[in-house]
Design a protein that fits this description.
single chain; about 190 residues; alpha+beta; Immunoglobulin-like; five-stranded antiparallel sheet; two-stranded parallel sheet; about 35% strand
Length: about 190
């Protein structure tokens, strides 16, 4: 009887520890968190919502963006994203990204990213625009992309610095519904 009780207790403990799940579904696995840093190019830690006319609305999360010289709208977007810059645009890349809701929320991205610059040759990003003239405005077509989070990287001239912003693509809902659902999802 004693052996049976010990065997049963060991079985219960093994089952409990092997089936234990993190109570927070947005938390990454230990492997993911070891590989993910605040500098990771493929994460979205927040969004800066901008209306269809470009007017700012609100922020959710803690956006890991470097967009002091670029202006993208609307966020969220449906099919077309307007891009404006204070200087001329050289190249634009798009990269799918993963939402990271509960990490890096106390990070001072403005200070951290001020001097940071991504090497676009080393990222898995798709080039979608190459300027053949001096333009500071363009429209990006997202009709061939899936719903989800993306990072838009923009290299400006003459200094060659890369700036970026986070966007969300929602082809299924109008702007107001998409913005409302996203806002609730981040709260």
């Amino acid at each position: 009887m004693k052996k049976l009780t010990v065997l049963l207790l060991c079985t219960v403990l093994i089952v409990l520890f092997s089936c234990k799940k993190d109570s927070n579904p947005d938390s990454p696995s230990p492997v993911e968190s070891a590989e993910m840093t605040a500098e990771s190019a493929n994460i979205v830690t927040g969004l800066k919502f901008k209306n269809i006319d470009g007017s700012p609305l609100w922020n959710v999360g803690n956006p890991n963006v470097k967009n002091d010289s670029i202006f993208l709208f609307p966020i969220p977007t449906k099919d077309e994203l307007s891009v404006r810059s204070s200087t001329k645009i050289d190249e634009i890349w798009i990269m799918s990204a993963e939402k990271v809701k509960n990490q890096f929320q106390d990070m001072d991205f403005q200070t951290m990213l001020d001097e940071m610059d991504y090497d676009m040759n080393s990222l898995d990003a798709q080039q979608v625009f190459k300027a053949n003239n001096n333009t500071s405005n363009t429209i990006l077509d997202f009709s061939n992309y899936e719903n989800g989070y993306y990072r838009v990287f923009i290299r400006l001239v003459p200094n060659g610095k890369v700036h970026w912003d986070n966007i969300y693509l929602d082809k299924d809902n109008d702007y107001n519904n998409a913005a409302g659902q996203l806002r609730l999802d981040w709260e």
